[in-house]
Amino acid sequence: MSLTQHAPALPAEVPAAADQAVLIVHGKDRTGIVAAISAVLGKHDANIVSLDQHSDNPHGGAFFQRTVFSKPGLKAALPAIEEDLREQLEAGFDLEYTLRDLSVPKRVAIFASKDGHCLLDLLWRHRRGDLPINVAMVVSNHPDLADEVRSFGVPFFHVPSQGPDKSAAEAQHLRLLAGNVDFVILARYMQILSGDFIERAGVPIINIHHSFLPAFIGAGPYAKAKQRGVKLVGATAHYVTEDLDEGPIIEQDVVRVNHAHTVAELQRHGADVERAVLSRAVHWHAEDRVIRHGNHTIVFP
Amino acid sequence: MSLTQHAPALPAEVPAAADQAVLIVHGKDRTGIVAAISAVLGKHDANIVSLDQHSDNPHGGAFFQRTVFSKPGLKAALPAIEEDLREQLEAGFDLEYTLRDLSVPKRVAIFASKDGHCLLDLLWRHRRGDLPINVAMVVSNHPDLADEVRSFGVPFFHVPSQGPDKSAAEAQHLRLLAGNVDFVILARYMQILSGDFIERAGVPIINIHHSFLPAFIGAGPYAKAKQRGVKLVGATAHYVTEDLDEGPIIEQDVVRVNHAHTVAELQRHGADVERAVLSRAVHWHAEDRVIRHGNHTIVFP
Amino acid sequence: MSLTQHAPALPAEVPAAADQAVLIVHGKDRTGIVAAISAVLGKHDANIVSLDQHSDNPHGGAFFQRTVFSKPGLKAALPAIEEDLREQLEAGFDLEYTLRDLSVPKRVAIFASKDGHCLLDLLWRHRRGDLPINVAMVVSNHPDLADEVRSFGVPFFHVPSQGPDKSAAEAQHLRLLAGNVDFVILARYMQILSGDFIERAGVPIINIHHSFLPAFIGAGPYAKAKQRGVKLVGATAHYVTEDLDEGPIIEQDVVRVNHAHTVAELQRHGADVERAVLSRAVHWHAEDRVIRHGNHTIVFP
Amino acid sequence: MSLTQHAPALPAEVPAAADQAVLIVHGKDRTGIVAAISAVLGKHDANIVSLDQHSDNPHGGAFFQRTVFSKPGLKAALPAIEEDLREQLEAGFDLEYTLRDLSVPKRVAIFASKDGHCLLDLLWRHRRGDLPINVAMVVSNHPDLADEVRSFGVPFFHVPSQGPDKSAAEAQHLRLLAGNVDFVILARYMQILSGDFIERAGVPIINIHHSFLPAFIGAGPYAKAKQRGVKLVGATAHYVTEDLDEGPIIEQDVVRVNHAHTVAELQRHGADVERAVLSRAVHWHAEDRVIRHGNHTIVFP
């Protein structure tokens, strides 16, 4: 691991909506949940800015709600609001919830290898102020992208990972991540993470898979797509679980191709879809628009 | 007008969600609206099935909410629920609202001319049980589609409309519609409606325009698209207002075309987009998913 | 098999391009093929209307060319043109070719079961003059769609197919098809064809699969898509081979869905994609725009 | 104008197809053109790699053909091939043509202002080897993007342009371009070019317009789109002519938006479409896949 780095200027943070918070609630559906939540917010004079709600079965299914509310002097008021919500939601309804100040962007580590198209797209959107995240670091098993990353004022850590035993590298990863990030993005990171690492990292990990899942699981999806003669190639952003390529899907998209495209051209078109799909998934995750439920997701885009 | 008709079997109604109602609320945004609505529903033991909310500016903008709720024995309970809502919403917040039993499909008249692709697509979808509407009648200024329409068990009325004076035809239209329909669909109806007719009809009128508005307003959009060499052709479903082609847009879509397409082929591809766009707009309107606001719409699809 | 039928009026044939022929050539790529073909056409004063060419590897790969040419008095001239082409292409270059008068639409049998959305879409496009085919018959293992089909003036044959032994039904199918059709469309036909039938039918068979292949092979793709939480559902038109769902893909498309869609709604949206994809595949096949090569296709749309 | 610059390393050129040339032919359609062209190529033992042909009317319309051929030792052979083509095409058929060695990428100047998303997307794609162009220079009326551009090893020239009189700036532009570029890209360059400049530049100029033309001509298209409530926003790449926003369209695309999007969000989504559309248009122009004809284009993608 290279610990020397290029005195990075801190990236300018995206100016997030001041005095706004996001509340995610999910659990077993019951009559009165929306009323209870909005009564608490009303009691604190918080104004609901947006509210998305989903019930997968009105008769005893699962309930999901995302609420954004504004409240002048939010920071000072949050603890009291949270206390009332806890009382109502956990005690009254046995629901899980998260409450977060939207002016504090989530901190992220981006893992990449040699191919930088997804990584650079994220860094560039972040610099334009389009991605409400705080890029704490980029980690790579190759040194190739170091200069490029540091030119964005983002720390770059090279953690080589050779041979079948990844434990030393993963131990370094865990030291880098510990306490520093709220989620991890695998931006075409060409190493398989161990179940142990996923568990100990303890934060959500988003991967971009270079095919329309579940169509072309595993390596070489563009060659397989060419061979099968498919007319669309795609990409899938999903949460990482121990089952490779099987985690909950956040977003997917496709692009039309034809017989004249070589495998290299399929890759080039696919790369455009990959970065579009990944940036949407990251954007939604950063704004708590994605709720995991079993092996799928509820997305309020 | 032909009053003889083929003793139409009543079309099988789409089995709508029993014991569910939809509530639309809109007006000036203020703190506490969501809480007030959900408190009323909670008081009546009604369970919220879905809730969509939009505020175009959290600081004093306009507020829009669509709520679907279920309540065993809905029909009997609706009057009391409505009374409480009226009190809360109109008295307390000065908001407009509509409340409707979802098991009662909206009644519609479809106007068409000679070209049946949009009309037949709607009738087909309805027969398959995919469109929650009650097709009360089809009205046309040409007799060509009579047999086809009646084979679906739907009444067909031929109201000729020649010459510049449409007042006689429009008077017949108004007699047919009066009390019988909740909205009107212009499914490639090639006559311009007078402002007087639109006002006296007193129900929403949805039109399908055969281009991506506002790109090719007026007649001959496919010829214009060919001449301009556009690479996409589209269609637009909108509410009809006195300003031709200028009403609030409900839905739009496009399809890719190229230099090799003749005007006839552009029309053929465009026709596919027209029927897809119109059927989506009708579906959303039928389920109260579209709220008009000024000259645009809020759509909760 | 019901042999009685409703004295069907013959469907109005699509007026195909008079005096135009389509020539498909494929084989091993070599220098001079295009020149040889265009020299023959030039010798006969035939004018090239469109020419599409593809070589999957300029150094000794496979060569594919589709040429449409016009020639006044085509019918009388075709034999002499074909003789010259045979001499040049088979003798000179060892290429395969087909030559066909475009004014003669291909004859087709459509197989369906109970669900008519793909079948009716084809019949309706054909009646509008948008599909250059001659629908010789509809064959179904259920009687449900008989009246609907016959109202289009198309013969309907009910061939029940129960139990594991399909040989009796397939024997009837073969008698119906023999000499009468140039290709077969499976428009949501819910029976598996035996390899023996496919071989003895001796004509191309196009199937519409209700998922994005190879993602959800086999039965119940919409339920699987819901369970996996995919964000797009699709459909695939392909040529039928003995390997179920593995034949050469002609066309695919997808539509965006989300967590709120039930399996029934996924099916409804999927049905729209199915009929769009199938109609494009049929259109292209009918105009000889699709060339099979190994297990994939070259499509000149 | 800043003439000092950062000793730019030359950008690595895209390795173009060696020993391949592209031939564009257009003019009045006549029998025998394809044969004549392929006969010349056959005489020189050149192998046709791909051939696209279009006739807008087989009876005396306009004819367009793009042919890519390979020939070992192309550079040495080109003059003789060209001589034979000139004789056949100009003398025999009165056709226009261009012949170009595909291993020599076209040289381009990119004009930008302050917003770098389209510019940087082009530079990235070029650095990845995905765009077969030679970026000779970037010209801007603002200095903001200088460092970013030079980090790609590309010269950056700042040519201020204030006030209504653009003649001084345009004179500088012409001196920079003269003899150095084969085409110009306006990558969100916020200045209007004079007709005099367009004529004297003497090379094709490609602009990216931030709306679906002809829907929202002129300034502020996203605000107009928001006001009109459109459900799709788009972008259009076109050749620049003296009539602002009226030149031949090369490529267009759209993205779905909804009522919840602010003008700023429409701009963000629109920016993604802009760079995708512009990069496709540039790619196609760079490979001579676009033929201008009157006020529209023939594109062989």
Automatic annotation (TrEMBL), chains A, B, C, D:
Domain ACT: 22-104
Keyword Hydrolase on entry: yes
UniProt-recorded Gene Ontology molecular function terms: formyltetrahydrofolate deformylase activity
Class of this enzyme: hydrolase
Hydrolase as UniProt keyword: yes
Domain of life where this protein originates: Bacteria
UniProt xrefs under Pfam families: ACT (PF01842), Formyl_trans_N (PF00551)
Catalytic activity: (6R)-10-formyltetrahydrofolate + H2O = (6S)-5,6,7,8-tetrahydrofolate + formate + H(+)
GO BP annotations, alphabetical order: 'de novo' IMP biosynthetic process; one-carbon metabolic process
Pathway(s) annotated for this protein in UniProt: Purine metabolism; IMP biosynthesis via de novo pathway; formate from 10-formyl-5,6,7,8-tetrahydrofolate: step 1/1
PANTHER family: FORMYLTETRAHYDROFOLATE DEFORMYLASE, FORMYLTETRAHYDROFOLATE DEFORMYLASE 2, MITOCHONDRIAL
Similarity annotation: Belongs to the PurU family.
Name of the featured protein: Formyltetrahydrofolate deformylase
Species, as recorded: Actinoplanes lutulentus
